Amino acid sequence: MKAAAAASTGIYSMTGFAQARIERDGWSLRINLRSVNHRFLDLHLRIPEGFEVFEQRIRLAIRNRLRRGHVDVNVYYEPAGPASLEVNREVAEAYMKAVSELREQFGVKTEPDLIALFRLPGVVAATGATSELQSEEAQERLGTQLDACLGQALERLEAMRRSEGQTLAGEMQGLLTRIAEQTAAIESLAEGVRPAFARRLESKLTELLSGAQIDPARLAQEAALLAERSDVTEELARLRSHVEQFRKLLDGAGEAGKKLDFLLQEMQREANTLLSKTPGVESEGLTITTFALEIKSDIERLREQAQNVE
């Protein structure tokens, strides 16, 4: 199984559900697995009475296959068909004695409900359920059945998580394409920003100097300084690099969720810097601001999707 997992590519979602069932000697062992997103691997087990001896075995098997996610594990062990019941008379007697003492102490005249008594823990069990786990030989047989059933459930859960991961990857690839296109558009617009700075400066200076002659060389120098402070070349280059790294992680194998989260933080930082340096001059600046806001919005959508990646 490890070799197959290593050969597979693509991300895995942390959302999935699977069920497996194996019958043997008139008994049915059923395991349900349900997983949702979580920062770490968080296992919650519900097992039948007497199965405590297998708890560590179950946890280890799951940890060997899953890396992240909140996973609910429900194990059911029940007769495969009609079965007779056995009453644990010692337990029932203890309950009845306690009820009798309480009735006498508080003066309660109501008779105890026998149907309710049968529902109390340990009073009624299917014939053979308790004795099934008495000997080491029986535990070994049941352990083998448990391993097979859990293995089937994990395979089905992984298949569903892989399928969900492919869907997530497709949606995120679409968002990455949009971000790449918006980045390219900003890069093209940024080339026309410097002349816009010169026009804005000339207009302001003319207004302040009441029509006096403006030194063209000084105007060009001031415009260049403003353009340099608003240059977004490095931010755009880093954003393009992050997009490519993101794509590689989506196409790769193994645990990618935490790496994607780190990349998204970096992408958000670059988008914020783009907005802070966006020149509010003429149509170019307004269009760049619009594209930068769209990039921020798409990064947030990516973050929502990446939270569910293993």
User: Assembly state here?
Assistant: single chain
Write down the overall geometry: elongated
Radius of gyration over alpha carbons?
33 Å
Strand content: 5-15%
Cα distance spanning the termini: 18 Å
Structural classification: alpha+beta
How many helices does DSSP assign? Answer: 10
Overall pLDDT, averaged?
A: 83
Instruction: Tell me the strand order in the biggest sheet.
Output: 1-2-4-3
Structure summary:
The chain is α+β, with helices and mostly antiparallel strands.
Structure in words:
This protein has 310 residues and is of the alpha+beta class. It folds into 3 domains: 2-83 and 126-161; 85-124; 163-306, Butyryl-CoA Dehydrogenase, subunit A, domain 3. Helices cover 61% and strands 14% of the residues. The chain has 10 helices and 6 strands. The protein has helices spanning 2-7, 55-63, 89-106, 114-118, 136-190, 193-209, 216-229, 233-251, 257-277, 282-306; strands spanning 16-24, 27-36, 41-46, 69-79, 85-87, 124-126. A 4-stranded mixed beta sheet has the order 1-2-4-3, with helices on one face. A two-stranded antiparallel ribbon has the order 5-6. Strand 3, helix 2 (55-63) and strand 4 (69-79) form a beta-alpha-beta unit. The radius of gyration is 33 Å and the shape is elongated. The two termini are 18 Å apart. 23% of the residues are buried. Mean pLDDT is 83; it is low at 1-8.
